[in-house]
């Protein structure tokens, strides 16, 4: 199988939709994922109907894998009924069922795609990743494979979704009313996920921050003098307290917060113990002086 290079990178936010895991011609997926259909043919008809209700004829759809289980003629039959120009990111089932003769019917076929929409970088994969390029720099990762959603209760991967970043989202049909989901809707969902995650960690929304954002993390048992805190705020520095104890917990806490902060984040940690591989300024237990804050800021 020879994969196509995606020749286009930038897309208009009004023209694109995302989906995954349609599993056309795969009747057993109804049982596996609790899909509300009587049989395979009814499922296929309903998926096609909802796709075409959602996507205009000139729309662009990124399908993130596990498209169809049928032979080449079935793939061609299904594709001939669907609206839009379709880009396919290969799923594990596509690697078994797709034939070279249908590749030309897609705009491109690849194992991963990276696109830009209105300046937003989006990484497209069949599977969710814990580590992907730009995870700490506002890049989204959209995926399928896990069959999350209101009907699915049996997926072995579902418990692992708690480990993902709020900038990741399952665009699979089981999670989106069995239809493609628009860029605007994904943007709203990820925005809500970010707001909820920030609120749970006591972070601000970061509205209005552009370019580089400087952050000083303060370790457990350390307090900041009022004059230092005012100096930080006046210079546009974010001050974030870390209450977790121990190197690994501190590193995890900082990483989780950095991933939720808008902009290109530069940060330093002030505490009693270095969490390794971080910019670090030592401080004895007590109140941080202006001098210590200045030393920390010099590292940024």
Question: How would you portray this structure in words?
Answer:
There is one protein chain. With 300 residues, the protein is α/β, with parallel strands linked by helices. It folds into 2 domains: 10-201, Purple Acid Phosphatase, chain A, domain 2, CATH 3.60.21; 212-298. Helices cover 28% and strands 22% of the residues. It is built from 8 helices and 16 strands. The protein has helices at residues 29-33, 40-54, 72-81, 94-97, 183-201, 226-234, 247-258, 290-298; strands spanning 10-11, 16-19, 60-63, 85-89, 108-110, 113-117, 120-124, 140-143, 168-170, 181-182, 212-218, 222-224, 238-241, 264-271, 280-282, 286-288. The strands form 4 sheets. A 5-stranded mixed beta sheet has the order 1-6-7-8-9, covered by helices on one side. It has a 5-stranded mixed beta sheet with strand order 5-4-3-2-10. The longest helix has 19 residues, at 183-201.
């Amino acid at each position: 199988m020879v994969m196509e290079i995606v020749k286009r990178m930038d897309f208009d936010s009004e023209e694109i939709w995302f989906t995954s895991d349609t599993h056309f011609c795969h009747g057993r997926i109804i049982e596996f994922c609790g899909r509300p259909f009587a049989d395979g043919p009814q499922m296929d008809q309903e998926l096609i109907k909802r796709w075409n209700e959602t996507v205009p004829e000139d729309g662009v759809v990124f399908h993130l894998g596990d498209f169809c289980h049928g032979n080449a003629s079935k793939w061609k039959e299904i594709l001939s009924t669907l609206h839009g120009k379709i880009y396919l990111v290969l799923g594990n089932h596509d690697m078994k069922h797709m034939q070279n003769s249908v590749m030309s019917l897609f705009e491109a076929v690849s194992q991963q795609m990276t696109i830009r929409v209105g300046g937003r970088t989006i990484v497209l994969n069949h599977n969710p990743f814990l580590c992907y390029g730009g995870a700490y720099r506002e890049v989204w990762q959209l995926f399928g494979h896990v069959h999350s959603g209101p009907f699915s209760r049996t997926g072995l991967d579902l418990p692992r979704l708690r480990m993902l970043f709020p900038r990741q989202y399952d665009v699979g049909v089981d999670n989106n009313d069995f239809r493609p989901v628009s860029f605007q809707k994904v943007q709203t969902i990820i925005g809500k996920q970010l707001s909820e995650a920030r609120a749970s960690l006591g972070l601000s929304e970061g509205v209005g921050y552009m370019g580089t954002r400087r952050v000083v993390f303060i370790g457990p048992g350390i307090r900041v003098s009022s004059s230092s805190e005012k100096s930080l705020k006046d210079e546009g520095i974010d001050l974030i307290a870390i209450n977790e104890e121990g190197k690994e917990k501190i590193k995890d806490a900082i990483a989780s917060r950095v991933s939720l902060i808008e902009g290109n984040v530069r940060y330093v940690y002030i505490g009693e113990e270095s969490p390794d591989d971080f910019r670090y300024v030592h401080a004895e237990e007590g109140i941080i002086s202006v001098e210590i804050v200045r030393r920390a800021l010099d590292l940024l």
